[in-house]
Design brief:
Layout (H helix, E strand, L loop, with lengths): L1 H14 L17 H9 L3 H23 L9 H21 L1 H16 L7 H25 L1 H9 L5 H33 L4 H28 L13 H30 L5 H22 L1 H9 L7 H31 L6 H28 L8 H33 L14 H31 L22 H28 L5 H17 L1 H15 L8 E4 L2 E8 L3 E5 L5 E5 L6 E3 L5 E9 L5 H16 L8 E13 L4 E9 L4 H18 L22 H15 L10
Antiparallel strand pairs: 1-2, 1-5, 2-3, 3-4, 6-8, 7-8
Length: 739
Amino acid sequence: MPICAAFLGLLIGGLSPATAQERPKDVPENLQPAAIQELVDRLDPDQLDALSQLMQLITEGTQSTAMTPPPVESLPFLDKLDAFFDQFIAMLAGYFSSIPDLVQAAIGSIGALVQGQLAGPFIPFLGLALALTALGFAAELVFNRFTRKRRDAVRTNKPESLFQTVKMVSTRFALDAGGLFAFAVVVLIGGRVAGTATPAASLAMQAIFLMVVMPRLIGAILRFALAPHRPELRLVRANNWTATFIYKNLIVLFAVVGAALFFNKLIVLSGYDLDETFRFFVGLAVNTWILLIIWKARKGLTEIILGDEEQPSTGLERMAYFWPYFSMAFVAFNWLLVRASVVSGQGVLTGEQSLGVITLVLFAPFLDTMVRGIVSHVIPPMQGVGPVAEAAYLQTRHSYIRIARVALLTALILSIARIYGVDLLSFGAESSSTVGQNAVGFLLILAAGYLAWELVSLWVNHQLAKDSPPAASNSEDAEMGGAGKSRIATILPLLKVTLQVTIIVLTTLLALAQIGVNITPLLAGAGVLGLAVGFGAQTLVRDVVSGVFFLMDDAFRLGEYIDAGGIQGTIEKISIRSIQLRGANGPIHIVPYGEIPKLTNMSRDWVIMKLRFTVPFDTDVEKVRKLFKKIGQDMMAMDEFKDDIIAPFKGQGVADVDEVGIVVRGKFTTKPGKQFGVRKEVYRRVQHAFEENGIQFARREVRVQLPPALQDLPEDQKQQIATAAAGAADPPKTPTPAA
């Protein structure tokens, strides 16, 4: 009541000649119902109308203040989520409850088109649409006649290489696109002549482009990627069923989408406010159809992603297996995102944008296969030989593929974000929030660190792919001392690990600093830790420093046979602190660099092997020398040894004389590790040559000279005397008793 009185007084005061500062004198101080009624009776009709409107506004404002719920933005998160789901369910219920209205609108829009309410008389409209379509096909036919030779060449020729395949499918796509371009140009010209401003021509052109041009363009793109009817032109690894299934379903799908878009245009033109309902059901049907396509072709999509990899990595196998399921989840998420944008009232994502995002996701496996095909032709050929070069070349190829995939994934993410209305490139600009700037900077630092990691790996593997170490001996005669790996194969893996650890540390520190973490204590702690290690682990420092100088001096390489201070073995592993040796009998020796007083490398450059032979005193030494020389010449002519022998086997004359005979010596020079097989062959040939030339190897002899009086003894007694004399000259060793 006081409020009503105040407003009544204000109204009277505003309508009376009194000024705003003066109170009307005829308004009592204490307004009672009777006084208010008396004042109302004094108002003229215009004042009564104004008072009525004012009271209505006051009443509505009070009710809205009492009944309107608080805005969604002011609610807690769970309440926001609950409110959103309520709105989402209400939206779905509204769509399904509008099905009868939608059917009525569909019938009504078709009736309006037939009755000539949308594009003029129906028969002229239909005739114009058919005429424009016929003109388009006629123009395409003319274009095809001019390019008939090229089409026949693509149709009849069979490619002999991947380059020819790409060339042929590119030519076919260009011819198909050229025909569609001629079709579209003639339709546009015909529509212009008919008058694009007229509803009939405009609607006819929309129908042609949506239901004819768009599905055929999608078909040309799919023929380029899948070649459903020409397996020899297929750029991806897909079986015939998968290629044909995806090709047919996507063409029909886009034809249905085009027809639905045109039909939606008719509903809007007919004046029905059911545009969003119609788009909801079309989007639901299209997304369900896409999910069914992915589900049925999931094995084929996995084969497409795997491609022609003979030994696919574990990561590639997992990605190929899970990609169809990820695609299905993304399609469902994208549909929900469209609906969520509608529920929120923002409408940031339309059905056309949603279809574009889904298309990018569906074509991602084909793009990945294309990237691998391009990489296989871009990567330079392997220059070296051997297992190290082969492994490095394979890793180089994987590095190129990973870099290309990161670039492809980045492009897809930027494109999808752009379709969603998010410009990631400008998200970290000064106009953005601090959180956005830090997030983008954090991601850029991680990306730069990963790129540096890949570039280091790529450079190291590219250098290792040039490696050509001496061929390892596969002979069963090889014992030890074979040639090791090259110097780059020894040093570069250590350098790679060092650089990658440095990249990880720097990237981690910079990323933490970008998101606001104070890295000063970490740097100070690292410095203190370095000092503690330097003072408290002097042996470790000595080992590391000694190893650095050993590697700088090229003292040893992987695979070489060395003597490290009395410990011999083949180098199997090199670390920053120690070296791992495999002994001749199999044990592993771990030798720190700081404990190696001197090092003898037995596998570097070449090996000289000297052999000793003892012949009787009456042997012709010159003849033996000539035999040795002939053996060496014969072995140099053998394919088995000619590449391993540096200097042939030859005699060196008399080396010594002992109680048995004359010691003659021969020598030869071979590559490291090859000397044992050559030595075996030399022994065999020397034995055979001595037998052919009547030369015997000297052996220990005991000669017994009997006095004349014993010359007539029987032979068995003479043999007994000789045996006794031999035993006296070389008595048997007494076995040592067991402890």
